Every structure is written in structure tokens, then in C-alpha cells.
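Possible regression after last week's pipeline update?

I re-ran a chain I had predicted before the update to compare outputs. Posting the input and the new output here so someone can diff against the archived version. Not blocking, just want to make sure nothing changed silently.
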Amino acid sequence: MKRLWVIWPATALALLAQAIDFSVLDKLAGKAKESAVVNLGPEQLSLVAGLGGKGGAEKLGDLAKELRAVQVRSFEYDAPGMYDMELVRSFRDKVKASGEWTSVVSVKEKDGFTEILVKKGTQGKPGGLLIVAAEPKEVSVVHVEGLFDLSALRGLGVLPGVPSLGAGPKKEAAPSPAPKSGKQE
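New output (post-update):
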């Protein structure tokens, strides 16, 4: 009987830390003119983690070892009002209500919103990242689950078609002064 009292709290905590339910967002695909759905779990990420080599591929492999899941939902519509923005808001609110996620950036616009949430992790590192962006004709949700350093996400830029997530704009080199001639005028 004493074992039951030890197991019960651990089981309750596991149930509270449930995965994000993307099925609600998948309903948005029906009227979209374009959609992208990405679901990478541990099996798929282990393939990326096996990348060897130098530079970017090695960094991407190291990042993949720390991740448990990468999920993306992106939908684009022909006209405003073709999807229910309240559905996206309720998705975001449900994630926030779990208590596991903290909003670090929240932008409210006239016709939409963007929210960036970080999941509480251990060792001073976040346990996940969730970006939810809704505009009148577009919805994008990116979810990265796992214990990682946010600066490591820059490594995703080594993949073709993925922009580099550098630390900011590159500075242009200052023009060099015109060469001085030896003649005096």
C-alpha cells in the first residue's frame, strides 16, 4: 500500500505534463490554399542526429540529439475570414493554462497576434519553444520540444531553404578612404 502512495504522485505529474494536441489546428487545413504540416518525433530526429561531418551538419546532429519533437503547422488562405481565429486563440490559451509554458513575447495587432512561449526546463535551459502567429490570411505554429539552448537553433540554418538564425544583421564594411595622391594642389 505504501508503494501506491509513492507511485500516485509520479503518475499524476506525468498526466499533467501532456503533449500539445495539434488535432485542433489540423482542422484549419480544409479551406487553406496552401498548407505545410511537419511532425518529427524521436525516430525521425535520430536520423538527423546521425549526421556526421564538419560544420553545420555536425551542429544540426548535436541539436537533434537534444530534441524530442519538432512540429509545424502553416496554413495560408485566399481571403480573410476563411478560418476561425478564435480556434487558434483557444489553442494558445490551453497551452498557457497548463502552467508549463511561459509567454516571453506577446504581440497583439488589430487583425492578429503573435506569441512566443518557452516551456520550463531543467539545468537553466528551456524544455521547449512554441511560436503561434495568426494573421487574417495566415496561421503558423512552430513547436520544438526538448532540452536545448536557444542559441543552438541557429544550426537549423544549414538546411537548404531554411534561413540562418544569426545574432542580427550583418554590418556593412565601411568604405575605405580614397587613396591620396602624392601631388599637392
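Follow-up from reviewer: compared with the archived run. The two ends are 102 Å apart (CA to CA). Marking as no regression found.
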